[in-house]
Design a protein that fits this description.
The chain has 2 domains: about 180 residues, 3-Layer(aba) Sandwich (Rossmann fold); about 140 residues, N-(1-d-carboxylethyl)-l-norvaline Dehydrogenase, domain 2. It is about 50% helix and about 10% strand.
């Protein structure tokens, strides 16, 4: 259907490349390390991230961004969110002028407080009709194993969203289209932070009541910020909101929940980071989301407490105790 470049050969980039190939697209996967790309081309496996998954023949890999981007109609960006700006600055001249750029990233940039679509627009000069987001309950390992899943493709241009929807629709992966890019991105970013908080509770030995309480209140504060910055509140009830939040907070496959669990068990941020190969985006984004909320006068206590925990200003026990002891108020406030 389309010549596609997936920029980022981590677990989610590789899994989404598989989805695109299954949907009939020609896919070039860019990876930073030449040796990993050579392994993918020779074995059809990403040994570092998805070693048990056989990749379709329609996927080839390269460490040369110019080769990956040449002639691409769809450019999928799947690098860690805090590395997007530096990468895009070196790639932007090579991205075809009519290519649609699709963000798989879930983060808010430190310092600028920009969502990933805003970073893409700033660096490339692309209009909103060329920038889209994919988000939902999409744990990479399950997607790569072709377990049934759904997601959301968001672009302010509904026609473009529908085009991308068709480009990644497979027998196992069902995408829905929408135009609420803001809500889709913010939900995907905040759920990682809430996932960290749930992981902390699990690590401390708390049960399902505690987890359900954090998930529900986390969704409420995410929706508050979303409405303040122009999102559709309905988005937070859907796949990009509740769906992604439940998957992240419930599954041991979630990097953020697993990271938080280790913190709850007594490990330091540095210790968990040292033993974790993949990026837990919530560890970085908690600070920027907390600052973004304050800029808009929105109260996000769970996000603020997680940011304090990551900064070393609060212990896991204090995080839970402080949240529970906050002043009582109506649920809808």
């Amino acid at each position: 259907m389309a010549k596609t470049a997936v920029m980022g050969a981590g677990s989610w980039g590789t899994a989404f490349a598989l989805v695109l190939a299954d949907a009939g697209n020609e896919v070039t996967l860019w990876g930073r390390r030449p040796e990993l790309c050579e392994t993918i081309n020779s074995t059809h496996k990403n040994a570092d991230y998805l070693p048990d998954v056989l990749l379709p023949d329609a996927i080839s890999a390269t460490s040369d961004p110019a080769e990956a981007l040449a002639g691409a109609e769809i450019v999928v960006l799947a690098v860690p969110s805090q590395q997007l700006r530096a990468n895009l600055e070196s790639w932007s001249d090579r991205i075809p002028a009519d290519a649609v750029m699709v963000s798989l990233m879930k983060g808010v940039e430190l310092g600028t407080h920009l969502r990933m679509s805003e970073v893409i627009a700033e660096i490339t000069g692309a209009g909103p009709e060329r920038i889209a987001v994919v988000s939902g309950p999409n744990l990479a390992k399950e997607i790569a194993n072709r377990e049934p899943a759904a997601s959301v493709v968001a672009c302010t241009d509904q026609t473009v969203a529908e085009r991308l929807q068709k480009a990644c629709h497979t027998p196992a992966f069902r995408p829905y289209s929408m135009t609420d890019v803001i809500g889709c991105e913010l939900a995907g970013t905040a759920k990682n932070i809430i996932g960290l908080a749930v992981g902390v509770c699990v690590g401390l030995g708390y049960g399902d009541n505690t987890k359900a309480s954090v998930i529900t209140r986390g969704l409420a504060e995410t929706a508050r910020l979303g409405v303040a910055i122009g999102a559709d509140p309905v988005t937070f009830m859907g796949l990009a909101g509740m769906g992604d939040l439940v998957a992240t907070c419930s599954s041991p496959l979630s990097r953020n929940r697993s990271f938080g669990e280790k913190l709850g068990e007594g490990m330091s941020v540095a210790e968990v980071t040292a033993q974790t190969r993949q990026v837990a985006e919530g560890v970085k984004s908690c600070q920027s989301v907390s600052e973004l909320a304050k800029m808009h006068g929105v109260e996000m206590p769970i996000v603020e407490h997680v940011a304090a925990l990551i900064a070393g200003e609060m212990s896991p026990d204090e995080l839970v105790a402080n949240l529970i002891s906050r002043q009582a108020k109506p649920e809808t406030v």
